[in-house]
Design goal:
It is built from five helices and three strands; from the N terminus they run H-E-H-E-H-E-H-H. By secondary structure, it is mainly alpha-helical. The protein has one domain: 3-Layer(aba) Sandwich (Rossmann fold), CATH 3.40.50. The longest helix has 12 residues, at about 10-20.
Length: about 100
């Protein structure tokens, strides 16, 4: 991953920094959160995701709530959804099953 901001105290500021560095807009971003501090960012991005064990406020702000809890496969679940939506999932299956 190119852009990671762990333990950011101001998550909106971190989002703005990443958008600027990457040359992207909010409508090109997905965000996965689980707590109150994530809600402000979730309200700005195109795809807001809450993990299954997130606080209710994060779930309410989310476009999608994962089946799996945080730390137990939720990010992989979201990556698979995005890759399938982009039509890239089969390409990966072929790549990893080719001998």
């Amino acid at each position: 991953m190119t852009y990671v901001r762990q333990y950011a105290k101001d998550k909106v500021k971190a989002l703005d920094e990443i958008l600027k560095e990457a040359g992207l807009s909010e409508d090109e971003c997905a965000y996965i959160g689980d707590d109150l501090a994530d809600v402000s960012v979730m309200q700005r991005v195109e795809l807001a995701v809450a993990v299954a064990d997130a606080v209710i406020e994060a779930k309410q702000a989310a476009h999608y709530v994962t089946r799996l809890p945080g730390g137990r496969g939720a990010v992989r679940e979201v990556c698979e959804i995005i890759l399938k939506a982009q039509g890239r999932w089969e390409e990966l299956i072929e790549r990893f099953s080719a001998n």
